[in-house]
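FYI - complex with guanosine-5'-diphosphate, inputs then prediction.
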Amino acid sequence: MANPVVAVVGRPNVGKSTIFNRIAGERISIVEDTPGVTRDRIYAHGEWIGKNFNLIDTGGIEISDQPFVTQIRQQAEIAIDEADVIVFIVDIKTGMTDADEQVAQILYRSNKPVVLAVNKVDNQELRSEVYDFYSLGFGEPYPISGVHGIGIGDLLDAVVNNFPDNVDNEEDDSIRFSLIGRPNVGKSSLVNAILGEHRVIVSNIAGTTRDAIDTKFTTEDDTEFTMVDTAGMKKRGKIYENTERYAMLRAMKAIDDSDIVLVVLNAEEGIREFDKRIAGYAHEAGRGVIIVVNKWDTVDKNNKTMQAFEQIIRDEFQYLSYAPIVFVSAKTKQRLVNLPPLIKNVYDHHTKRVQSATLNDVLMDAIAANPTPSSNNKRLRVYYGTQVSIQPPTFVIFVNDSDTMHFSYERYLENQIRKAFDFTGTPIHIIKRRRK
Ligand code: GDP
Ligand code: GDP
């Protein structure tokens, strides 16, 4: 379920982000870019020979006000904490440096598999120099050129070979959700308040780091939930814990590992850039989303306050128009009982399958009410649609020419599908496919 995580480490300028982009860029996303979403270049998906993984560029996690050496050391520590496999990058042009050796020392003490890549080996002549790096102690160095795309396949073969064996062999039907938000919005308070109300099943399966930070509980109707990364939020007291980029990285990891994401906002402080980034990431990752406005007890209210706040959220998160909003207080426990049933409800929508016949009735009615547009003298024809997957619900719609289906008509069809079937809380994907 959770993808293995690969971290790229090395001192500045060795080519980390070049290689990150090369590995991540080759994956073609079916999801179109969402307007209003700022993407973070520190965390991305990768795929190699059918294996999916997530990739971290530790160079993107700047720890401000720290000397150079401390920074790269902390980046290496983050890699050790967060990754299953580490790609350690050095630079043939500069040769081995003290900083490389220091990074090597830190990595060497960890138990994580390390694959050593020597970058900027742009031509054959340089290859013979690669063997100098054997002395770093990570076995055979892989010569690569990030810029020219040389050697990346062999490197990825080695990375994939080091993936841990699948630890997720036990059946788990529980609904996985996470509480995501900036520091101090009240995540830990919410976690404790929610767990305080329910029967917690301690499921600390030996040896797996993930289970150690997940908490399973059941509600009275016997629905099983897994709260993702509960302990991880406060796991370490290290300096980098408070850096926003690191918080972002942890948030993205937890989102990947969840079915449903509770985006926690602080009613006292309103919406910040961080909130938008994580919400955007959850949306693009296709997760179910619930917006939770915490600390509602601190707000001076009249009968219009909630609506006004809701409007601000709708304006700021336009792409999340499907997400329910709840106003809660971890302190007074106001409306917290509503959360598990709401999560269950969104999960049901996230995993819902609709019959092709019913779907096509809806599509044909939609087309009758609002005929398909034409462009370049060509009229769009919609033949039929079918749901191909869940989590999120994904529909393939067969058309005569996928280019003539503009965003606005696609949006119209999505709205009609949403009207006919309740998909509250979940994004839905529409894939246009050409059929002659
Ligand atoms: P980072 O600081 O480790 O993320 O390094 P960057 O990816 O920003 O790269 C630093 C510099 O090295 C840039 O000018 C890149 O164009 C260059 N570079 C990266 N990969 C290669 C490569 O394979 N060959 C050569 N010649 N230059 C490279
Ligand atoms: P986290 O960093 O997101 O996990 O936030 P915490 O749960 O540690 O909460 C940060 C601070 O906000 C603490 O002082 C909490 O007591 C306070 N807090 C959390 N939830 C609420 C709430 O609903 N109302 C009020 N008034 N304070 C809250």
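The chain has twelve helices and 18 strands. The chain has a mean pLDDT of 88.
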